[in-house]
Amino acid sequence: MNAEATSPILLPSFSLLEEPALAFAAGAAEARHRHPLVGLSRFGAFDQASFRHYVPVLRVAYVGPRSGAAQVRDMRESLRGPQRNTDRNSYAQAYPGFEALFGVDLVGAEQNVHVVWPEELNELGQGETVADRVRAALHHALVRLDAVREQFDVVLVYFPDRWLPHLRTQDFDAHDELKALGAQRGIPTQVLNDKSLRFDNRGARAWRLAIALYAKAGGTPWKLAPIAGIPEDTAYIGLAYAIRHTSSEAHYVTCCSQVFDMEGGGMQFIAFEANDAIADEAEARRNPFLSQADMRAVLTRSLRLYLEGHAGRLPRRLVIHKTTGFTDGELRGVLDATQSITEVECMEIGSSSAWRGVWMVEAPDKTPPIQAARFPVPRGTVVMTSGTSALLWVAGNAPSAVGGRDYFQGGKSIPKPIVLRRHLGRGPFDLLATEAMALAKMDWNNDALYDPLPVTIMYSQRLSRTISNVPSLPGRSYPYRLFM
Description:
Elements: E1 15-16, E2 22-23, E3 32-33, H1 36-43, H2 48-54, E4 57-65, H3 66-78, H4 98-102, E5 105-108, E6 115-117, H5 130-147, E7 154-158, H6 164-167, H7 174-185, E8 189-192, H8 194-198, H9 202-216, E9 223-224, E10 234-246, E11 249-259, E12 268-277, H10 281-286, H11 292-309, E13 317-322, H12 328-337, E14 343-350, E15 360-362, E16 370-372, E17 381-384, E18 389-392, E19 418-424, H13 429-439, H14 455-469, E20 477-479
Parallel strand pairs: 4-5, 4-6, 4-7, 7-8, 10-13, 13-14
Antiparallel strand pairs: 1-17, 2-3, 2-9, 10-11, 11-12, 12-20, 14-19, 15-16, 17-18, 18-19
């Protein structure tokens, strides 16, 4: 037998990145922490000092059937005070109360603001189908709320479990319909169901909902702390594609979720209608891409938003993320739109890697002396697989975030790495991996340490799904908080 055929494949040695820190309490240099919940408890939200001036009390409106009003009120009241977290892991934190975290109280809006629906779907709104009735009821509720917009900050919308089989079908998604309608009127919403109302761990539930409500009301819970080697005037854009049919043709609607600065602030997205029709829709769904002209147009529009938010300054460095490879035409479009930007990185970020890894440790008193560790590969492990690609463990053991104790989020299975593949650029790969790892901590819609992917990817995918389900959404820019 050929000896080479049985030789193991040798990869380069790995590097281990530091857990990125988050910034809290703007203006306080010491207000940094790797753990988002500890940072909030210890220092307060990033914009807490300014938030209370324009939202002195966070007022919550209710939309839903009458039978859910009391349950939702009780849940809202539970967020005001301390709650015990019953999760048994090194990440879990007791919840201190809404005002203790954010410096403002959480209260119900005035009675005339709430929209109470009938108990049964067949009594809800007008229309021939259930979807038509739900859509009509959502539209009517948001029109009413828009008329009293100055009397509330966020809307809690309750869908009872008995309704759920009719709220998400092949042709209709009530959640996405609500988000799209709310975005058009600038009304942030939080959807609740029976599972969230009955969730046993009151502390964990309180963290998730409190952070989301604060962000949806316009607050910034945390930002990324500065990362050594990354210029402050760096901008990030995440691309995802949805397909929209117009008459006999199919066009891409490109969603750009944007983290305008390297701190992770200014998140907006663009629903961009591509001009060029799709020739092969089946191929487009498998491997979506834009023409050179459409890529140039969508990036030009995205950078215009950056200019508006940064006193007319372009970023010095631009990082573009998407889940599929960049075609030659797309890269030419990128270069056309970014001629005035010094550094441009085009990164493909894949989540379907077949690679797995086991963390091996020394065990001198055992046989064999090298054995698998009790916890998985550390979060932040990077293995280069070529000069332009690497494996990054975004999920993994994260002891540095929880004071040195082992912590693997979810606690199950062997984490798989994401694949980073560069199509344009020349910066250090460790910095690109650190950015991806840091941006995975910027989802304000939960209380977790990280998401499986950077928010540039997670947000744009979520928004493209909404646009796919609600093709009537106008193609303009929106704050991401309206779709959380």
